[in-house]
Queue: 4 jobs
Job 1
Amino acid sequence: VFEAGCREIVATRGRAFAAVNIALCDDGLYRCGVEMHYAHGGFSFPIMFDATGYPTRDAARTAGIERLLRCWHTPFPSDPDSVRSELDDMRRQIEARLQQPSLF
């Protein structure tokens, strides 16, 4: 059903990362899932066949990046400054991807 190996890391800092996973489905549309892992947590949304499909890989990547930003974790008051810095740096990397045209 899905094309394997379409994972794009869109932000990193140390061992923390955020990624967009893209699959080409049998109906010819691309669908995306996202994941983020950082020092104190993370989240993941899998690729689902009944999710919105996109005609191109670039459109699915952009939708995935936008979903990451909508679901972005707001640090808890008890989180150390290192976590805040990690999350802020990764968010800036992701926002920069939306502002720059893709070379691929």
Job 2
Amino acid sequence: MAERSYRLALPYTLSRSRGRRYPMLPVTFTYLRTTQPFNGLVDSGAERSACSEAAAREAEIDLDQFPVRRIRGIVGQTRARLCPIDMNILGRRISLEILVVEADIVLLGCHDIFRAFQFGFDERASTLLVEPY
């Protein structure tokens, strides 16, 4: 088995709403304007990245321009819009299509973010390991 090394070892971030630590990275979004930083949960189980409607509106996306679609997630079926946006993460700007959902969440998923970075999860040390491609 090939040995891996990671350039960054970042401590998990404390979620104030849940009182636990999670593998998160600070991200901003850029569409017509750049948003404030959000904590994005690195989610190896998420196919696509997702953000809240509030984050999309802060980036000045006109959500009415994009059709509503039904998606299946961990909480069952929900509504989302697939919107183009740039995500700024660890000094890199990544163009992607993100699912904009009604939930107050930012998820970093496999289809896009995991193609730009390799991730490792050290649960004992509560550390997120990151290596840019």
Job 3
Amino acid sequence: MEIFSIHDMDGFIKHIRNGAAQSIRENYTDDLNDFITLSQVQKLVMERSMGVDENGCHLITEDIFDSIFEDIRSSIYQSALAKLAAQNIIECAWDDESNEMVFWTKTS
């Protein structure tokens, strides 16, 4: 298991958030702060890191990176769905059977 040290936290959190957004939609143009802020991403990275090295840099593995990336991606996706529902573009409801929110397009 290889361990990576994050030497530029600001650059790292911007890069991982942008990458997660682009994995949902290429040429992502929305303000990402409307979905997940850089401070939220930084908090997630700091919580998931294995600790810090002698230089105070947070340490992560590839698995930790993947987990953080997926959580950011999921947060952006869920926030986008919630915004569409709030704008009455799509419908949503809680599904007790699947124990999750479900979304569908409105019918005229």
Job 4
Amino acid sequence: MTARRVWLSIKTPLTMLLLLGLVLFAAAWGYRNATAPIPPRPPEPCVDQAVGPKYLPSHAVLRLYNGTETNGFAKRAATILRADGFRVIRIANAPQPINGVTVVGVNDKSPEVVLVRSYLPNATFIADPNKLDHVVDITVGKGFTGFAKNPLDSVPLPNGHACIPRIQAGAEADSLYTA
């Protein structure tokens, strides 16, 4: 056999094998991407606003999580915080039970974190620089005995500006979230 005849006899099966490999690769890629979890939506950045000389509880937005096995624990804590003027947009269960209280915020100098930590002086603080929305997450767990007797009622702002969560800054806030 000549080289030309060999090529003519293997050209079609070789092409079919290459096409089959391409189809199998595309099917594996499609299946992997179709079954992958959808990534969470990134938080919307906060809005820098002039709020006056003091940061008040009404400027802060909170999410409370129940880190105990007692029903309604976070809801009772949210009732007290709402009575003091905080905006609680979510009450839910924590992924697992914890001991004590955890506060997660953008950093420990942020006015909303300073204000919340004054209510929970023994809480463990976790800084999360990815919390661009400036919403504070509080997880109340076993051992939570209550709030501080004399928490701050405001935090002074040197320039009168604070980064307010978009949910609090816009007029449509009440229609977007319910707790």
